[in-house]
Design a protein that fits this description.
Met_Sox_Rdtase_MsrA_sf; six-stranded mixed sheet; 8 strands; Peptide Methionine Sulfoxide Reductase, Chain A; EC 1.8.4.11; alpha+beta
Length: 175
């Protein structure tokens, strides 16, 4: 079996795990940090905005079961691709939306998908999610892993209270 990796940043990583974790072909979803210059950053360091890292998820998947294109489609439906300065209640560089590609094929898929989303007129503002080469991915502390399972009440309250769930309902539930 061949495995591939996909890395997506879409605001709080707690909210980025569940949509992927429940799909067939997903082997693992890890919350972590990437895109910055500080090795092995802590949550507190990333939140300080001084590391250059963003919160992200690293997804290990079986491309024979779920394609990278399908993962990108799921990604778009979890984020506000028109907000470059954070996601929902989470503001700042460490919450910026990024698709980190691990191959030229992933880059091409992401760029075509972004262009299609822009052309769709689903959003009145430009699609500003960046597409960048993957860098070292640092897993977050254990208490951040599988947060939606470990703390379902907190997770549900946060995903609703942050505005994420309402945004998703408004923009994607009418597909």
């Amino acid at each position: 079996m061949t495995e591939e990796r996909a890395i997506f940043a879409g605001g709080c990583f707690w909210c980025m795990v569940k949509p992927f974790d429940q799909m067939p072909g997903i082997k693992q979803v890890v919350s972590g940090y990437t895109g910055g210059q500080v090795p092995n950053p802590t949550y507190e360091e990333v939140c300080s905005g001084m590391t250059g890292h963003t919160e992200a998820v690293e997804i290990t998947f079986d491309p024979a079961v779920i394609s990278y294109q399908q993962l990108v489609d799921i990604y778009w439906q979890q984020t506000d691709p028109t907000d470059a300065f954070g996601q929902f209640a989470d503001r700042g560089d460490s919450y910026r939306p990024v698709i980190f590609y691990t191959s030229s094929e992933q880059k091409n898929v992401a760029e075509m998908s972004k262009n299609q989303l822009q052309s769709s007129d689903r959003f009145k503002d430009p699609i500003v999610t960046t597409i960048e080469p993957a860098q070292t991915f640092y897993p977050a502390e254990e208490y951040h892993q599988d947060f939606y399972r470990k703390n379902p009440a907190h997770y549900n309250a946060y995903s609703e209270g942050s505005g994420r769930k309402g945004f998703i309902r408004k923009h994607w539930d009418n597909q």
